[in-house]
């Protein structure tokens, strides 16, 4: 069994940024394991622009953004293995991976960074009625087929779900000559960024129907038509509200799920809301020496935030390998009254960095409200927000010197009038 100081699982934006950060923090023995045939992850198929404004202060396409980090990895001489599928991780930080050249290989790691990304919610998880004809794709699959393999998946398209990938694919399909009939969203608000609603739907006169869902898929060999219905406050279809759309393709953009089967195998505790690992302010999971970052931790809306988070994971993993990660008394972070979750879920005031960014999502659309932070029962922050929406991550910064007087038993983050 070979040994590496640090093994990073996933060669997408999170894994690449974590590797660069760990090397710059002094870790020489790093191995990246990537299951695809190239580094870059999902960014390789995201040929639209809008990436890098925070990280590089310029607007890049997905492949351009990925290339910046790939070049850094190559310049720093960080080894990576492509077409290598990680089959298992143990709590002892032993990793089993498989590829065509080496077969099955087990390696031992001083620390592991989980950066496997996320996957789309498939049709089977949505309970859509109807036959199973050709022409039904998740939005990400359609994006790969079009942008990497050069295949137009359909000519008359209906999109269910207003996640960012679905919105971007509405524009992409239109630009390739397809007719996008409509985007329907089960919730009374969009699941995507507002800028994507404007640039991908409004600019192309594509309607968005909120509080609607697909209630029937017609066609046996190929999709020929779909039925949508308005839903009530319990998300149940309302009889008599049916509408019919002739189409040959149905794209599903109904949410992303962190890819955590390997995390479970290692015994990592998962958050019931995010679906990702429970982590502390160092992004360390419940298994010592195993860290997580990017969409495997929680689904991000901007890749710039993924890179920022991954750089922190790389630095903290380097500190763990060097024996610098002291453990103290953790203070739990609690999301309440409209705050669905927080990442991290706990912090160590004694050993934390000078400041820690806490990211979270709200449960509904809130206008002219406050994001409040309480140390115990004492309110220490009360920030006015013009609008908060589930499709956009929020964040607050907790500073170490805010605990100079006393360390609270818990920290609450909530939405208030």
Explain what you see:
This protein folds into three domains: 1-119 and 256-325, FAD/NAD(P)-binding domain; 122-254, 3-Layer(bba) Sandwich (FAD/NAD(P)-binding domain); 327-417, no CATH class. 19% of the residues lie in helices and 35% in strands. The chain contains seven helices and 27 strands. It has helices spanning 13-24, 62-75, 139-147, 164-175, 194-201, 261-265, 303-321; strands at 2-9, 30-33, 49-51, 60-61, 80-81, 85-89, 94-99, 103-114, 118-120, 136-138, 156-160, 179-185, 208-210, 212-218, 225-230, 243-246, 249-252, 256-258, 290-292, 331-336, 339-343, 346-347, 355-362, 366-375, 378-388, 394-399, 411-416. The strands form seven sheets. Strands 1, 2, 5, 6, 7, 8 and 19 form a seven-stranded mixed β-sheet that branches. A five-stranded parallel β-sheet has the order 10-17-11-12-13. Strands 22-20-27-24-25 form a five-stranded mixed β-sheet, with no helix packed on it. The radius of gyration is 22 Å and the shape is globular. The model has no long low-confidence stretch (mean pLDDT 94).
Question: Which SSEs are present, and which pair or pack?
Answer:
Elements: E1 2-9, H1 13-24, E2 30-33, E3 49-51, E4 60-61, H2 62-75, E5 80-81, E6 85-89, E7 94-99, E8 103-114, E9 118-120, E10 136-138, H3 139-147, E11 156-160, H4 164-175, E12 179-185, H5 194-201, E13 208-210, E14 212-218, E15 225-230, E16 243-246, E17 249-252, E18 256-258, H6 261-265, E19 290-292, H7 303-321, E20 331-336, E21 339-343, E22 346-347, E23 355-362, E24 366-375, E25 378-388, E26 394-399, E27 411-416
Parallel strand pairs: 1-2, 1-8, 2-5, 8-19, 10-17, 11-12, 11-17, 12-13, 20-27
Antiparallel strand pairs: 3-4, 6-7, 7-8, 9-18, 14-15, 15-16, 20-22, 21-23, 23-26, 24-25, 24-27
């Amino acid at each position: 069994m070979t040994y590496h100081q640090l093994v990073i699982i996933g060669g997408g934006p999170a894994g690449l940024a974590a590797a660069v950060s760990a090397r710059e923090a002094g870790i020489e023995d790093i191995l990246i394991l990537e299951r695809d045939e190239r580094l870059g992850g999902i960014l390789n198929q995201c040929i639209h622009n809008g990436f890098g404004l925070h990280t590089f202060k310029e607007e890049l396409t997905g492949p351009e953004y990925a290339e910046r980090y790939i070049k850094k990895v190559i310049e720093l001489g960080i080894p990576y293995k492509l077409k290598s599928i990680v089959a298992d991780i143990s709590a002892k930080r032993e990793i089993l991976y498989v590829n065509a050249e080496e077969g099955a290989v087990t390696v031992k790691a001083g620390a592991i960074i989980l950066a496997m990304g996320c996957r789309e919610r498939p049709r089977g998880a949505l309970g859509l009625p109807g036959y199973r004809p050709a022409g039904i794709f998740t939005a990400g699959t359609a994006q790969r087929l079009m942008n990497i393999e050069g295949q137009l998946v359909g000519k008359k398209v209906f999109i269910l779900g207003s996640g960012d990938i679905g919105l971007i694919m509405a524009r992409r399909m239109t630009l390739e000559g397809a007719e996008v009939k409509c985007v329907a969203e089960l919730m009374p608000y969009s699941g995507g960024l507002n800028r994507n609603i404007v640039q991908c739907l409004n600019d192309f006169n594509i309607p968005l129907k909120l509080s609607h869902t697909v209630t029937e898929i017609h066609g046996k060999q190929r999709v020929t038509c779909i039925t949508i219905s308005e839903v009530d406050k319990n998300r149940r279809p309302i009889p008599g509200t049916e509408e019919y759309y002739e189409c040959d393709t149905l794209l599903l953009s109904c949410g992303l799920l962190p890819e955590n089967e390997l995390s479970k195998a290692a015994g990592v505790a998962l958050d019931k809301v995010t679906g990702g690992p429970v982590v502390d302010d160092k992004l360390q999971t419940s298994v010592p020496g195993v860290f997580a970052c990017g969409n495997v931790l929680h689904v991000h809306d901007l890749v710039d935030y993924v890179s920022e988070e991954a750089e922190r994971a790389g630095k903290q993993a380097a500190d763990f390998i060097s024996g610098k990660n002291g453990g103290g008394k953790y203070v739990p972070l609690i999301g309440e009254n409209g705050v669905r979750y927080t990442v991290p879920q706990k912090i160590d005031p004694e050993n934390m960095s000078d400041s820690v960014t806490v990211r979270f999502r709200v449960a509904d659309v809130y206008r002219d409200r406050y994001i409040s932070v309480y140390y115990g029962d004492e309110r220490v922050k009360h920030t006015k927000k013009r609008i908060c929406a589930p499709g956009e991550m929020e964040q607050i910064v907790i500073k170490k010197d805010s605990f100079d007087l006393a360390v609270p038993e818990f920290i609450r983050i909530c939405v208030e009038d």
